[in-house]
Each structure stands twice: as C-alpha cells, then as structure tokens.
Q: What sequence folds into this?
C-alpha cells in the first residue's frame, strides 16, 4: 500500500527539529524509516507530519565515554564502529537485513521498541541509557525505565533521542542468541548474557512484552530463565516450544559469555 | 509538494513530488525506470533494493522527498555501454533467474555485498539472500552466481596485484 498524506519537514539543525516536533501535533521524527515507513505503507500510523532528522548534523557520532560506547541516534545499524562493543557485534547481524541496516538507525530502533528487537534487549542487559531532548529540556533515561511495553517507551511525543550509551565492562564476556524463522525475521525468542567472574546477567526478548532482565541461577541459567517467562503461543510456535527455546538460548548465551570471560 | 534534485544512474533529474511519494514509485512512475520492482512495500521481499548513496537500501522504505541531493543506482545503471557486469553475466550463465521479478533487487544488494565482502563464504551469501524473496529458483543458482562473481573478482584482483 501507499502512505496516507502527511507533511514532510526537513530541519537542518537540532533546534529546528525540536521546534517542529513541539509545534506540530501528531508529528513523528523520521530517522532510518525502516520500521516507520512499513507502518506508514500499511497505514498503521497516520502522523500529521514527518520531521526528517537525517540532515541534522552531529547526531551520528560513535565514541567511547566513561567506559561506555556512546552512540549518536542517527548512527546506522551497519556502522562498523558499533562493533567495538562485543555484544553489539554479535547482535547486529540479526537486525533485519544488510539493506535495512544500511538505513536503520540505533536511535530509531530504541524509540520504536519492538518487543522482539535486538538493540533494546542489549541496552537493557548492559544497563545502558538513552539521552533525549525536547524544546522543554534534556534528560537521560535508564534502559530499565525506557522500555514500557510493545512499541511504547518513556519518550514524550516531542522528545527526540540524541544518544544511547552502552556500558562496556572489563573482564566481562558477552553473548547474544536468537532464533527467527528466517535470518533477519522477527525473533521467536532472543537472549543476551554477560558474565564476569561469578556474576551472570541475562536478559530475554520477544517472549516478553519488553526486554526483561532475569535473575538466573548461575549453575542452571537456562532452566531458571525458562521458569520465569510466560510466552504466548503464536501461529508459528506453541507456548511450550517458546519456553523451551528460552531455556536453550539462555543456556547457550551464558555458556559462550562464560568462555569469553575466562579467555 | 517538494522539489527534489536527484542523480539516478549518473543522470540528474529535478522533479516536483508529493510529500508522501515513495522513492520506488518515483523511480518507476516518474522516471520510467521500471527495472526497480515493487513487491511487498514493507522491506521484506527485497525486490525494490537500489544503491542509495552507495549502499543497498529498500526504495519502498524511502521517500522521494528524502532523496533530494542523493545519488542512486538502479538495475538500469549496472551495465555500461551495453556490457553486463561480471555479476550479471554470472546470473546469465548460472541461470540464476526465471521470472526475473526478484532479480534487480538481488543484483543491487549483491553488488553492494561484493564490494564490502570481497571473498564471501557460501553461508554469507545465503545470509544476504535471506533479505530477498525468490519463488522460482530455490536460490541455489543465485548463490552459485554470486559465488562465481566473487571468485572472478578475487581472481581479477589477484592478477592485477
């Protein structure tokens, strides 16, 4: 299908973009558009205006700050600099396809907050944060408070993601696991793990309404994670299958993260 | 309405477009470049893939208005002076297409892929093709053709070195 009518606005500065988002009721920022354009084409959303932020300068920096990878909202998912973080290096190939990663942005994926998306899951596991600004001011939102539910975040309608921070701890092994019907499709289930010494951290996605940290038994991470989720059956998979999948993916992710922590 | 100034296959166009016009429809309907095919219009089938600013992108997930100032290559821009690219020749030799609907998108995606991945494994090629639906070939000849083009490219570079 084709998008419903909207006004296309193209600010060249951040201030201009924020003013447009504040002034225009039902405006939506357009970044990579790899989720927004499908939603428009299917007429699932009807914004009055799109504020195309692709020409706003300085929003795509990637650098290291205070032990974290600081990623500008407009950094594309294909950006090689993101792979400096070992968890992102492992998760990013699962994000859509090469052609969608060339356009899709990190900030856009976080703001879209699909329950099965890889980047939100990684941000929650790492305990990262999102920095957002509106004409009213700037704030930092920890990942644990950012994702509220499927396609729902703590962002206000006039707020724009500026940056996300991805903590990178020393002596820590990271791993990401996911199963999708075809590579690049929406995940049935996904798991991310970080291991440092005896400490094991696990987060799961797709089988929960938002990416969720789980307290797992370090001796038995898969089974203890599976016991904590209540997957809903889909046309593709039964709840029992998905629960077992969580067990397998968490077990694999923790095992690999552990090997890397020891290496 | 918005005026876009865009370079497609080396030729510059200046056109006034509706805000909501998709780049895929602009290329096909306005510029007459119907080699870019439109399948699903939500980024899944890959048929509309073009090179946008040098990188493969779905033209159904871009607005024509966004493309102001951009450089785009469509399947019509691959061959030079009537000579197919080595990738296109490999598709021909390996019979990597039947109906041809998916072919333009795959050619553009694979052109970008081979530029970034000079010596791909078969698994990497299959991974690339997960972003492209082909209902005729069963994919095997497409993987063969891309592998052959990669080998030819590596050989040519080796010979030149």
A:
């Amino acid at each position: 299908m084709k998008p419903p009518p909207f006004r296309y606005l193209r600010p060249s500065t951040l201030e201009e973009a924020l003013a447009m988002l504040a002034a225009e009721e039902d405006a939506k920022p357009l970044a990579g558009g790899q989720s927004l354009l499908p939603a428009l084409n299917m007429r699932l959303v009807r914004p009055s205006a799109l504020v195309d932020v692709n020409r706003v300068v300085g929003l795509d920096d990637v650098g290291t700050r205070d032990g974290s990878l600081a990623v500008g909202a407009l950094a594309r998912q294909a950006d090689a600099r993101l792979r400096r973080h070992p968890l992102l290096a492992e998760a990013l190939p699962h994000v859509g396809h090469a052609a969608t990663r060339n356009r899709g942005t990190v900030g856009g994926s976080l703001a879209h907050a699909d329950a099965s998306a890889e980047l939100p899951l990684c941000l929650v596991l790492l305990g990262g944060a999102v920095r957002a600004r509106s004409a009213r001011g700037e704030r930092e939102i920890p990942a644990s408070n950012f994702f509220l539910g499927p396609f729902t975040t703590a962002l206000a309608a006039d707020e724009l993601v500026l940056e996300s921070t991805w903590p990178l701890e020393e002596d820590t092994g990271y791993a990401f696991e996911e199963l999708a019907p075809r590579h690049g499709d929406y995940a049935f289930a996904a798991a991310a793990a970080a291991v440092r010494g005896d400490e094991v951290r696990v987060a799961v996605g797709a089988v929960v309404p938002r990416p969720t940290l789980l307290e797992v038994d370090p001796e038995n991470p898969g089974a203890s994670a599976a016991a904590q989720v209540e997957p809903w059956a889909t046309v593709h998979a039964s709840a029992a299958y998905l629960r077992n999948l969580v067990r397998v993916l968490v077990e694999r992710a923790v095992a690999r993260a552990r090997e890397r922590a020891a290496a | 309405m918005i005026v876009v100034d865009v370079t497609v296959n080396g030729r510059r166009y200046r056109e006034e477009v509706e805000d909501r016009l998709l780049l895929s429809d602009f290329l096909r309907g306005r510029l007459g470049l119907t080699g870019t095919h439109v399948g699903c219009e939500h980024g899944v089938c890959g048929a509309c893939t073009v090179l946008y600013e040098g990188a493969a992108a779905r033209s159904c997930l871009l607005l024509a208005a966004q493309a102001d100032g951009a450089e785009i290559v469509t399947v019509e821009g691959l061959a030079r002076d009537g000579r197919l690219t080595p990738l296109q020749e490999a598709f021909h030799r390996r019979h990597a297409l039947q109906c041809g609907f998916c072919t333009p998108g795959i050619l553009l995606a694979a052109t970008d892929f081979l530029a970034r991945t000079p010596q791909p494994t078969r698994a990497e090629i299959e991974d690339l093709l997960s972003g492209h639906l082909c209902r005729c070939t069963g994919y095997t000849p497409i993987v063969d053709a891309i592998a052959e083009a990669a080998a030819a490219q590596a050989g040519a570079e080796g010979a030149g070195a």
User: Anything to note?
Assistant: The longest helix of chain A spans residues 239-262. The CA atoms of residues 133 and 244 of chain A lie 41 Å apart. Chain A has a mean pLDDT of 97. The interface with chain B takes residues 1-8, 10, 30, 33-34, 37-38, 40-42, 50, 52, 54, 78, 93, 96-100, 102-103, 182-184 of chain A (CB under 8 Å).
